[in-house]
Amino acid sequence: MPNRVVTVASTPSPPWRLSDAEAYAQMRQLSDLIVTRMALVDRASALTIRQDTLDTDGYDRSAIDARARHLADLLRRVLE
Amino acid sequence: MTPHYELPQDSLGDVVTALLADSSAATSPQAVVSLAVTHSPAERWTARLRREYSDGLAVLSQRDELAPSLPRRELAEAVASAAIRLQRNVLFEGEAHWGAVSDTLAYLRDAGHSVRVVLIVDRQTDAALARVTQSLRAHSLGEAEQTRGADGVDLGVGDTTVDRYTVVDGDGATVYDGPTVRDALRAMTDSRAAAMSGLQAVSWLSELRRVTEHVTSSANRVPRDILTRTVQLYDLAVERVLPEMPIRTDSPAATVQRQRLAAGRARVQALIDGQEQERTAAAAPPEPSGPSL
User: Fold this and answer.
1) Which of A9, A12, B22, B92 could cysteine-pair with B33, CB 3.0–4.6 Å?
2) Given CB atoms, is B44 within the 8 Å cutoff of chain A?
3) Which residues contact residue B159 at a Cβ distance below 8 angstroms, ignoring those fewer than 6 apart?
């Protein structure tokens, strides 16, 4: 699992704009990663994160990007 | 196989309880399944679905992270059993294949849930471009490419399990919502062929230009398959995208755009031709090297 974290955190930006579908898929992947790590130690918090992610509109790019930024911050804290 | 699980009092029971806690008892409970027909992840519409159900909509994700060690089918069947007993709405999210959940849905329907299928359908032009950028990204990272979307889906025409179909187009708009599979299929076809707005078309062409810059300047050799699909994007641009733009075909802007597309296509085709020449040279038998006189 740590290898996957490094991949997500160090992915270089492509020269093209990430499509909305790709941005959403990556955000969900990031959320899954955090929830998987947290589920074993704090199921309630993991469920809250999961629900907030599920409630992020997949067709609202600004909401997707904001959620991804929040999750990235959360991942850094989880890894500390 | 017919599901027959009672909710166990172990970790599986905990997971199912946690998943269903996101909804309350419904007077007319529904079982929903979302299917990606083209490139978009089917999960994209989940938030809007959840807002639609005032009783809540418990979500079982295709790769549920809360129970990673459990067999998918066992979890689905346990959720279905609990949803029936507790009268909960439940969404099977991102199912790539209808067959993966058809038994579970039939079981839910027999027990009183109505069954709804949500189909997520991108435009053909958007899906084609997104697939190329996804392949390029995976290639540049050295990762295996994830297949997303079924590019057509067997709806089990004539299947009496489904009560309601919802078709969502590439912009997230509902284009069909009703009981008829024939109308759902027609809406899917229309969504795939839908025209882009002028702004979307400009953005599409801009992304194609960036993709071309990347494949022609990349230090890593881009696989022929991706190059071929990039050339196909240029054909799509000429046949579909450019004619849909709000400019006259004989205008200077259209002429310049066609010239740019022809030049971009030629650059990518030259890479393919170069790879083909290398392959031919490598496969050719070595020149006979007799003693020189």
Assistant:
1) B92
2) yes
3) B102, B181
Long-range contacts at B101-105 (CB < 8 A, ≥ 24 apart): B101/B33, B101/B76, B102/B156, B102/B159, B102/B161, B103/B1, B103/B2, B103/B3, B104/B3, B104/B31, B104/B76, B104/B77, B104/B80, B105/B31, B105/B33, B105/B161, B105/B162
- B210 token code pair: 């960036």
Residue of A nearest to B40 (CA): A21
**CA-based nearest residue to B164, from B266, B274, B89, B269:** B89
For the sheet containing B164-168, what is the strand order?
B58-61, B90-93, B30-36, B114-120, B164-168, B174-178
Q: CA-CA distance, B274 to B278, in Å (whole number)?
A: 6
Which of B67-71, B130-134, B135-139, B160-164 has the lowest average pLDDT?
B67-71
Reported pTM = 0.83
B34 pairs with which residues across the strands? B118
Cβ distance A59 to B172 less than 8 Å, yes or no, reads yes
Q: Rg of chain B's alpha carbons, rounded to an integer?
A: 25
Structural tokens at position B268 = 């990518």
Determine the distance in angstroms separating the CA of A1 from the nearest CA of chain B, rounded to an integer.
12
Burial of A67 (0-12, 13-18, 19+ CB in 10 A): buried
> For the segment B57-103, what is each residue's pLDDT rounded down to a tens digit?
999 887 666 666 677 778 888 889 999 999 999 999 887 666 777 88
Amino acid identity at A40: L
Instruction: Give the separation between CA B9 and CA B264, rounded to whole angstroms.
Output: 62
